[in-house]
Design brief:
Elements: H1 3-59, H2 63-86, H3 88-117, H4 122-142, H5 148-158, H6 168-174, H7 183-188
Keywords: Membrane, Transmembrane, Transmembrane helix
Protein name: DUF4231 domain-containing protein
Organism: Candidatus Merdibacter merdavium
């Protein structure tokens, strides 16, 4: 196997990993956004119901109304505390930021694959790959934690069945057609 082919295989694998992680962070942001919307609606409804219950207590004084008003107020307080302690919207933004950074990095891997196809110097290709890897690890180090649900959703979206193991077809599915791997490709390197 020639040096350029080794570099290409390594870059393709790194590209797939970045594409995979990018999609996971997109899906995690989607999950948190769905939770955020549900909690926002629940917060509004519970606040309105608590206000109605308190106003009703002014007009009448049954015990059941006091109990329901107290429960609804408790739910409203729980939702507000949940927002403050878990910072759901901040988590959405962190995952979106990480996804954007990974998308930019993914595009740089595509550009490097193009350079490989254009017969650039192997030493220059390796140097650029090492810079990309350094940038990748910097992004990974500051990336927020994801859930298994986001991994499953990303897997379904990208049709990838193995963690950190990608077939040529899976990688080709993420790349522009001109950078797909084919039988004629190996002879051109």
């Amino acid at each position: 196997m020639n040096d350029k082919l080794v570099v290409e295989e390594t870059v393709r694998s790194a590209f797939a990993g970045v594409s995979w992680t990018h999609k996971i962070h997109e899906k995690q942001a989607d999950i948190y956004y769905s939770q955020f919307k549900i909690m926002e609606i629940a917060k509004i409804i519970s606040s309105v119901l608590a206000s109605i219950g308190i106003l009703s207590l002014i007009i009448s004084d049954p015990l059941w109304l006091k109990i329901i008003s107290a429960l609804v107020s408790g739910v409203s307080a729980f939702i507000s505390t949940y927002y403050q302690s878990f910072k759901t919207y901040e988590q959405i933004e962190n995952h979106k930021r990480t996804a954007r950074e990974l998308l930019a990095l993914r595009d740089r891997y595509i550009h490097l694959l193009l350079k490989i196809r254009m017969n650039d110097n192997v030493a220059d290709l390796v140097e650029e790959f090492e810079m990309l890897e350094k940038d990748k690890h910097s992004i990974y180090d500051s990336a927020p934690i994801t859930t298994n649900k986001a991994v499953k959703m990303a897997s379904e979206a990208l049709k990838i069945s193995h963690d950190n193991s990608y077939t040529d077809d899976e990688i080709d599915g993420m790349l522009p057609e001109c950078l797909h791997k084919g039988d004629t490709h190996a002879s051109k390197l």
